[in-house]
Design a protein that fits this description.
CATH architecture of the largest domain: 3-Layer(aba) Sandwich
Number of strands: 13
Bound molecules: pyridoxal-5'-phosphate, zinc ion
Order of helices and strands: EEEHEEHEHEHEHEHEHEHHEHHEH
Radius of gyration: 20 Å
Strand order of the largest sheet: 4-5-13-10-11-12
Helix content: 25-40%
Structural class: alpha/beta
CATH class of the largest domain: Alpha Beta
Number of domains: 3
Shape: globular
Number of helices: 12
CATH topology of the largest domain: Rossmann fold
Length: 400
């Protein structure tokens, strides 16, 4: 029974070609443990006609319902997420000939782009009868799961690194979630979560270890193409990469739109990572097909402190398949980019979200971005929870 029009058919493992029935709760591939991705009957859609019909739909991510996994409208758990504005940034003399755009996911419910993935994943989880969810998080994913879990009336547990800002912990608790803090990074939080939860019936909502968060993130790509209809599709998207779901999601969006005959050229995807934790950029430079874990990770941007992203094969595939690349930025450059965006453009974003702006000088110098191109900076999170003074003080103190 479907009334959203979802064309979901199956979940597929790209590593071993196993196909899984999507009507039962499942995390990773039962055969090999890799990421499962949703597949749709794209041949049932008249792509260009469908694309035009979207104009009449409400400005939220559920407008793409046919290519989302939720079957029944009553299952949708929503706080009005999606369709964040794209704003034009000021031309900068140091980046001659570049037109700069920013996608403002800092304005989404819960203050970050994590709302997209969690809205879709929590809706689907509750549709499949799951009542008890958990996630290891650097902060924003935890807040988003706690909020959507509260909305859906589900039990939620969040595993956070012990250095997570108290405001994040309190926000998760305000939404009614249980919080467990774990020494180390999200990697250790993930390991503790999986061992403590084992056998207790909770469902793991970790990035790319469940199949539907990436479907929510896919709408980032759909929106960019839709909002840039008038011929201003960016040549490049510069994105702050941690767990990599955003890159995998946008690449999946562009690939589906190409199959549907809606898109003929794909923006190049660039991953920006901090110098103190750059496993994806290192793998790109080494020509590797998967990342190796980053030793002694440290950065001022909590969401980018991901030393060993799961499903890195998919992240690298997205970057390479789009013709993009990656670069690193220092923590100091990130903080200066936060100030530059605030002072020059009136935009106050989180350290992660400022990383793409910080990367522009290097990407221009390296020839990745060229005069005449339109470049979209993906603003993934709001600056409101952050104090620049505290962030600077944490830099002066150095890593713990
Ligand atoms: C604000 C912000 N930006 C970027 C990221 C990294 O996102 P992704 O997992 O899509 O690479 C995170 C992850 O926590 C985040 O909170
Ligand atoms: Zn597999």
């Amino acid at each position: 029974m479907t009334d959203t029009g979802s064309l979901l058919t199956s979940l597929e493992c790209r590593a071993c070609c196993t196909t899984v029935d999507p009507e039962r709760p499942v995390g990773t591939c039962p055969t090999c443990g890799h990421t499962l991705l949703a597949a749709y009957r794209l041949d049932r859609l008249d792509g260009p006609a469908w694309w035009d019909s979207l104009l009449a739909r409400p400005p939220m991510l559920w407008r793409y319902a046919e290519l989302l996994p939720v079957r029944r409208a009553e299952s949708i758990v929503t706080l009005g997420e999606g369709y964040s504005p794209i704003v034009r940034l000021r031309n900068r003399p140091e980046f001659p000939g570049l037109t700069l755009l920013a996608k403002s996911d800092d304005l989404l419910p819960t203050g970050s782009f994590k709302a997209r993935g969690m809205a879709v994943a929590v809706s689907r989880a509750s549709e499949l009868g799951l009542r008890d969810l958990y996630v290891p998080s650097a902060g924003n994913a935890g807040i988003a799961l706690a909020a959507y879990g509260a909305r859906a009336g589900l039990r939620v547990r969040i595993y956070l690194p012990d250095r997570t800002a108290p405001t994040v912990i309190e926000t998760c608790r305000a939404y009614g979630a249980d919080v467990v803090t774990v020494p180390g990074t999200i990697r250790e939080a993930g390991a503790t979560a999986r061992s403590q939860e084992s056998g207790h019936g909770g469902f793991d909502m970790s990035t790319l270890r469940e199949p539907y968060r990436v479907e929510g993130k896919k709408t980032m790509g759909f929106e960019i193409v839709e909002q840039c209809r008038a011929g201003t599709l960016p040549d490049a998207i510069v994105y702050p990469a941690g767990g990599g779901t955003g890159l995998v999601g946008m690449y999946k969006a562009f690939t589906e739109l190409r199959t549907l005959g809606v898109l003929d050229r794909m923006p190049r995807l660039y991953a920006v990572q901090p110098e103190g934790c750059a496993p994806v950029v290192r793998a790109l430079r080494d020509g590797a097909s998967a990342v190796t874990p980053w030793d002694h990770p440290s950065t001022v941007a909590p969401g980018l402190l991901v030393p060993a992203p799961f499903a890195s094969e998919r992240i690298l595939e997205a970057i390479r398949g789009s013709g993009g690349g990656g670069t690193t930025v220092s923590d100091d450059e990130i903080l200066r980019a936060m100030e530059a965006l605030a002072g020059e453009d009136g935009v106050w974003v989180s350290p992660e979200a400022a990383a793409p702006r910080a990367a522009l000088p290097r990407l221009v110098r390296e020839g990745a971005l060229r005069s005449g191109e339109t470049v979209l900076l993906y603003h993934t999170g709001s600056g409101l929870p952050f104090s620049l003074g505290q962030l600077r003080a944490s830099l002066d103190r150095g890593p713990p």
